[in-house]
Amino acid sequence: MNKPKHQHFIPKSYLKNFSEEINGVKVVEAKLKSDGHVKAKPISIRDICVNKNLYTLTHREGEDKYALENYYAEEIDKVYPEVYQWLINPDLIKITPEQRIKILLTTMSLFFRTPKFLNVNQRRINHILDYAAKHFKDEQGNIKFRFNGADLSFNVKDIEEMRTELKAKNKQAFLQNHIQEWHQFVNFKSKAAICVYRLTDDSELITSDNPVIMRSIDDHDLVNPFDPTNMISLPLDNKHYLSIFPNTEQAMLDTIYRTDRDKWFSLTTNLQVEKSSEDWILGKIGTIKKHLQDQEKYGALTPENFKEVENMKKRAEDGNDLNRFMELFGFPSQPVLDKVRWMMNNKIHQKDPEIIKMVVELAKRGYYL
Length: 369
Hints:
Order of helices and strands: EHEEEEHHHHEEHEEEEEEHEHHHH
Oligomer: single chain
Largest sheet: 5 strands, antiparallel
Strand content: 15-25%
Shape: elongated
Radius of gyration: 24 Å
């Protein structure tokens, strides 16, 4: 059995879909979130999104120490390439219950296995101990306070030992709890709609070291994975994007919904990816530089950009109206025909790939606009 010390929390089987091969090595363009510029040289996917002994179970003996890492390697990372091919295959519309579970297990592992939550709690331990040393220390240097339901008592000279002990317990709790929460989450989302978006123009998507984006459609500030109003998204490669819809919406469980998008989708999506990242944003060669240029260009306070924001909102509103008409009256129907005809006569919709696809589909059924 393998004894991996440097362990990927974002697996190479995922990262390779954003990579390019140079001299036999798969590499990505990368930028630290804290830096203002892209790294001068591409980084091998072997050397990014790794932590030393992240999944090593130090409280176990022998081969059992690496049981979790080997589980990820065999049951998730080896399975993901097959799942990825399902997701990007435009001809695959119907899926089995087993395929649905595999899709949820492999993609959502990228949320629960990242060290983001571990790091948050480690930083919290640092702040609490530093605060305790400042406010709860007596004249002899003894510190007493309650933390996570336990009474702690130690001398200030032993604070680093206490820090190490608390962080070790925190890591052990992370390793135990995230597996349980991950599988509970997959069961929780087992009846949510699955959709894959495809970019049809020359725009490209990026990813990060925390690639799963989770947000409530009700605009809650606090991220709760088990909020039924969550929209959950993940870049799959530079051209495909996965979304798992809120539990509050009805779905055909045997279907992968597929839809096309353009650069305006990639612009907003890449911005979300960067905001959600922990330390790194990553992508194919040139995509990170292009992302930075696009954010500067389209983030400028110009009349043209303000107008485009208005157009994006209007396109979304019209698209929601069209979906509602299809749900109420069916496809095709006179209200749907009237709405599509109106949208095709409106400049903001004339290059929309979804509307163009709708016109083609209507034409196949004998309805010419």
